[in-house]
Design a protein that fits this description.
Order of helices and strands: HHHHHH
Low-confidence stretches: none
Oligomer: single chain
Mean pLDDT: 95
């Protein structure tokens, strides 16, 4: 798990017509899964395929579930947990998934910084 620059990720997602956003979706899912220790959650690749096969319906569940997973990860890493599950679901529902990615990445970056500080 590493810290990622949110602005660069958004720009790359736009420039590549969404291809980088697919990669970002996958690594976000994997990083959240790793940070929370939730081995029952599907990997990023599986989550992407399920979203694709269900024409985005699984993506709604994914957004909500990521909120719960990130909350767990924050708790485990000594950060005050903030449950944004419903916010992520609503943003995904109205087609603002890229904002979800940015918010999720911000939370994961905080966890990565906390871990890096603890290791130093």
């Amino acid at each position: 798990m590493r810290e990622r620059n949110i602005a660069v990720a958004i720009v790359l997602s736009i420039i590549t017509c969404g291809i980088y956003a697919i990669y970002w979706f996958i690594v976000l899912t994997d990083d959240a899964r790793l940070a929370s220790g939730d081995q029952q959650a599907p990997s990023g690749g599986i989550a992407f395929l399920l979203t694709l096969v269900t024409c985005g319906i699984y993506g709604l569940y994914w957004a909500y579930r990521m909120g719960k997973t990130i909350t767990t990860a924050e708790s485990k890493n000594g950060i005050a947990p903030e449950d944004n599950s419903v916010l992520y679901l609503i943003l995904q529902l109205v087609g603002l998934g890229i904002i979800n990615y940015a918010l999720m990445q911000n939370s994961l970056n905080a966890i990565a910084r906390k871990k890096a500080g603890a290791q130093a």
